[in-house]
Specification:
Length: 418
């Protein structure tokens, strides 16, 4: 079926509301995407009709909820083209997924049989200059705990990685390379396979932050070739409070746990404990049951539309928006100025106008955008700016909404230049 954005929009109840007496124009999907009614219903139905704890009871409700929870794991595995459902770990969000890896790697320093993961003085941990804070801070902390060196691949004036630096920064001392697939601040789509291949060549573990990629691009972990891939549910039209970490099973089986408690154990004695096999080793305690089930519904939803269709829709929107915004005199795009290898997130500045003022005035027109450094402050430092205004699109965004954005930004500019 041909992609029909107006049909899609009917699935999202919030898009029918007004803000300040005008129709809502929601252009903040990179921050958090809106939810289709089927996702809202899935979470409500579980609480209303099937709720119990998972993997702990043999009664009917316990069996139903366990089946639904593990069924969501199957759906996510298929969405990612993962070789095994046992490679899918549910977390609270991608921040927890990345911290899980960083702390598990730290714990490996005292774990028998985890030699590959040991990190210490002389070793290096590599990220990029365009990372979200969630993919910077955990690795800085790991470097501090282990004595390793923290390094990064720089970005150029166009918002892309400096190609020549990839082979220099990722070298024989590198143990971990963790990088973003699509930048939340710049919209840049990075050359994942190129970086993964370089990491593999030097024996480093590769980790892909796919928080901004999962809602917008077909995501095939076997094709990407990385060791770990993570994303978060609320950006994929799912609920808050749930994320996903995928990892190669042989690596997960060697990693020590992140948290200790119920469900992640094999046996417990007062003299010591042994741990369950993945994925349950990394899912201590009662999980985010309803949220995981609703995430499975969100995966069903985007799969039914088609990730290739979503990508093509958003590529056209991005090109249209770049043309429209760059027609405004003085507006500066922070990030790639062309639609090549970039996603549906556009950050910009206006001379002499603070991004927060732009966002506030756009809100008065019913247009929701984000202003700030978008948890990617090093990007703003790199370009010598305090913040940006960011418009980000989703499966429900229309060209009419982009026209409203362009008119709104132009109106803001006129207000400040009278």
């Amino acid at each position: 079926m041909a992609f029909d954005v107006e049909t899609v929009r009917k699935d999202f109840p919030i898009l029918s509301r007004e803000v300040h007496g005008v129709p809502l124009v929601y252009l903040d999907s990179a921050n958090s995407a809106q939810k289709p009614q089927v996702v809202i219903d899935a979470e409500a139905d579980l609480y209303a009709n099937h709720y119990a704890n998972v993997a702990r009871a043999v009664h009917t409700l316990g069996s139903e909820v366990t089946h639904a929870y593990e069924g969501a794991r199957d759906k996510v595995a298929a969405f990612l083209n993962a070789p095994s459902r046992d490679e899918i770990i549910f977390t609270r969000n991608i921040t927890e997924a990345l911290n899980l890896l960083a702390y598990s790697l730290s714990n490996a320093s005292t774990t028998i049989g985890a030699d590959r993961f040991r990190i210490g003085p002389g070793d290096e941990i590599v990220v990029t200059e365009m990372e979200h804070h969630s993919n910077i801070v955990p690795w800085q902390l790991l470097a501090q705990r282990t004595g390793a060196t923290f390094r990064w691949i720089p970005i150029d004036d166009e918002g892309r990685l400096v190609e020549s630096a990839i082979d220099e920064v990722i070298n024989e001392r590198t143990k971990v390379v963790s990088f973003v697939y699509q930048s939340n601040a710049l919209g840049t789509i990075n050359p994942v396979r190129r970086i993964v291949e370089r990491a593999r060549a030097v024996g480093a573990i590769s980790i892909v932050d796919a928080a901004q990629a999962a809602p917008h691009l077909p995501l095939d972990v076997q094709d990407l070739g990385a060791d770990f891939v993570a994303f978060t549910g609320h950006k994929l039209y799912g609920p808050t409070g749930v994320g996903v970490l995928w990892g190669r099973y042989d690596l997960l089986a060697q990693l020590p746990p992140f948290l200790g408690g119920g469900e992640m154990i094999e046996t417990v004695d007062m003299s010591g404990s042994t741990f369950a096999a993945p994925p349950h080793r990394f899912e201590a305690g009662t999980p985010m049951i309803a949220q995981a089930v609703a995430l499975g519904t969100a995966v069903d939803y985007v799969t039914a539309i088609g990730m290739h269709e979503i990508r093509e829709h958003e590529k056209a929107l991005t090109a249209y928006a770049l043309d429209g915004l760059q027609s405004i005199d003085g507006l500066r795009i922070i990030g790639p100025a062309t639609p090549v290898d970039r996603g549906a997130t556009i950050s910009f500045t206006l001379p002499g106008i603070h991004p927060h003022d732009v966002a506030q005035l756009l809100d008065e027109e019913g247009i929701a955008v984000r202003a700030g450094h978008h948890c990617a402050r090093p990007v703003c430092v790199r370009y010598g700016i305090p913040a940006t205004t960011r418009a980000s699109f989703g499966v429900y965004t229309t060209t009419d909404e982009i026209d409203a954005l362009v008119r709104g930004v132009d109106k803001v500019k006129e207000m400040f230049t009278r």
